[in-house]
Design brief:
Helix 1 (11-24) runs parallel beside helix 2 (47-61) and helix 2 (47-61) crosses helix 3. The chain has one domain: Transcription Regulator spoIIAA. It has a four-stranded parallel sheet with strand order 1-2-3-4, with helices on both faces. The chain is globular, with a radius of gyration of 14 Å. The model has no long low-confidence stretch (mean pLDDT 79). The protein is of the alpha/beta class and 133 residues long. It has helices at residues 11-24, 47-61, 78-92, 102-111, 118-127, and strands spanning 2-9, 33-45, 65-75, 95-99. It starts with a strand and ends in a 6-residue tail after the last helix.
């Protein structure tokens, strides 16, 4: 599943993201899936927002999320974002990678056994106001 995330994030932003994410991933429950997360802007979490994200990831891991590829391409605070997300992902034991491009994210997920619908992925990104392509 492709996710666009533009920071900074407070608790309310992450709760709204969780609601949107939940509706998008309903068809995936019971199946193993991976996310490509493209972060832009000042992609930092306040502490309570990080806690909400950790709870969200933990809950969807139980439903089948097993891999996360984070594209740091346009983040203005790349190392801080990576540190925050790595702390969350490591504490949960979820497989993850930080990359520079969408192509690298797709390649990693494919190497982990996922089939990626590249046409659907491109369509998703073309609709996005923060189009990474």
């Amino acid at each position: 599943m492709a996710v666009q995330a533009q920071g900074p994030w407070n608790r309310e932003c992450v709760v709204k993201f969780a609601e949107d994410y939940r509706s998008e991933r309903e068809g995936l429950a019971g199946n193993r899936w991976g996310d490509i997360v493209f972060v832009t802007g000042e992609s930092l979490f306040v502490p309570d927002a990080a806690d909400v994200l950790k709870s969200l990831v933990k809950s969807v891991m139980k439903l089948g999320l097993s891999h996360i590829a984070v594209v740091l391409g346009n983040s203005t605070v790349r190392s801080s974002t990576k540190t925050q997300l790595e702390k969350i992902y490591n504490s949960l034991g979820i497989a993850h990678v930080f990359v520079e491009t969408n192509d690298q994210a797709v390649h990693w997920l494919e190497s982990e056994g996922y089939l990626i619908d590249k046409t659907a992925l491109l369509t998703h990104y073309l609709k996005s106001p923060t189009n990474p392509n």
